User: Fold this.
Amino acid sequence: MNYLEGFVGASTSINSKKWGPLTMEVASFTPALDGDLVVHVGDPLERKSPLVRIHSACVFSEVFGSDFCDCAEQLELAMEALTHEGAGLLFYLRFEARGAGLAAKVKATALEIRGVDTFESRIAVGVSPESRDFAPVGRYLFEKGFKNIRLLTNNPLKVAHLEGTGVHVLRQPLLSSDPNENVKALYRTKAAKFSHWLPNV
Ligand SMILES: [Zn+2]
Assistant:
C-alpha cells in the first residue's frame, strides 16, 4: 500500500511563533516517500494573482545554520513576503541538493569546501546538478484554480515548468540582502551554469 495515499490533501493549522497562523497541507511533488508540504498563508484564492514561493529543503542551512548557502534566508524572506501580503502559498519540497538527495549533498559539500563549484561537485559525485521537476507544482496550482501567480524566484526552470502546465507566471526576484563570500560564489555559479537571473556580485 502506498503510505502517502491516505494522507495527501490532509491539512492542519499551526500557530507559528514567527509567522502567525499557517495551514500545512500534505501533498506529493517529489519522490520523498513521506510527502511534501503546501503552506497556506491566509486565503490565497481570494487574490487575483497570489504570491507563491517554491522552496527546496536544505537541512544544512535551515536547521544547522550553515553559512555555505542562503537557503534559510530565502525561506525567511519568502515567509516574510507572504505574511506581509497576508496571503499566498509556499511549497516546501523535499528536494535536498536540487533533487540529488541528502547523501549526495554531503559528498558534494565536502568537495565544495575545497573550492569545487556546486555544478562540478554534483558531476564529480555522479549525480545530476539539477534534477528537479516543478511541473507537479504547476498541475496542483492549475487544478486548485491558481492560474495567475506571482512567483518569487531567480530560477528560469521553475517559471518554464509552471508555464508548461498552463499557469501564468509573473516573476519576482528573491535575493539575500547581504550575501557572504560563499553565497556570492554560489550566485556566480548559478548565473553562469544554471542560467539563474542573479546580479553580478
Ligand atoms: Zn542550502
Remarks:
- Helices lie at 59-62, 71-85, 102-112, 120-124, 135-144, 156-163, 181-193.
